[in-house]
Amino acid sequence: MNVILDYDVGNLASVLRGFERVGIESVVSKDPEIIKNATSLVLPGVGAFKDAMEALQKSGLIPYILEHVNQKKFLFGICLGMQLLYEKGYENGVYEGLGILKGSVRFLDIDLKVPQMGWNTLKFEKKDDPILRYIQEDDYVYFVHSYYVQSSNIELVAYTEYEKKVPAIVRDKNVYATQFHPEKSGIVGSNILKAYGEMIQ
């Protein structure tokens, strides 16, 4: 079962529809028993890094997320949910993230309009990754963010150019995440979720 984590942050209904649209049976839950039995977890998120981490801590779900990843089961982070996977966030202070991925989340300090809001193209870093199976380089996906991941890029699968090289899809073994919203990215987003669904069967 694919479980979308309900910790009172994120557009859960939209994310649920995105997965169901491609035939991935999913539920929205904050029940530890359901989460413990999940084959895949989805960590959505919108808003500020600090608020989302506080909501996660209050939910009591962090130990279950970490245990799930340690069991080598799949996890998919979306937008702020991707950023929370990293070690630290620098949004109005310095805050600890989940530390599942190495790196930090920094303000997109550029001359272009921030937040990056709208459609942008994907450039492939690891063309053979199975998450890219049904899409093409330069396909468009939908972004809404003012912060971006800085890391060694060892986990980078695809990126977008927005004055800076902005990580767009990352992967470390069983952990995937997208900076963009696949559930709002039309057929391209659906094809990314379809590829993910084949991995978690």
Structure described in brief:
The protein is α/β, with parallel strands linked by helices and 201 residues long. Helix content is 27%, strand content 31%.
Write the SSE topology.
Layout: E1 2-5, H1 12-21, E2 26-29, H2 32-36, E3 40-43, H3 49-59, H4 62-70, E4 74-78, H5 80-83, E5 88-89, E6 95-96, E7 104-107, E8 116-121, E9 123-124, E10 140-145, E11 147-150, E12 156-162, E13 164-172, E14 175-178, H6 186-200
Parallel strand pairs: 1-2, 1-3, 3-4, 4-14, 5-7
Antiparallel strand pairs: 5-6, 7-11, 8-10, 9-12, 12-13, 13-14
Question: Your description of this structure?
Answer:
Helices cover 27% and strands 31% of the residues. It has 201 residues and is an alpha/beta fold. It has one domain: Class I glutamine amidotransferase (GATase) domain (Rossmann fold), CATH 3.40.50. The strands form 3 sheets. It has an 8-stranded mixed β-sheet with strand order 2-1-3-4-14-13-12-9, sandwiched between helices. A hairpin with a 1-residue loop joins β12 (156-162) and β13 (164-172). The termini are close together.
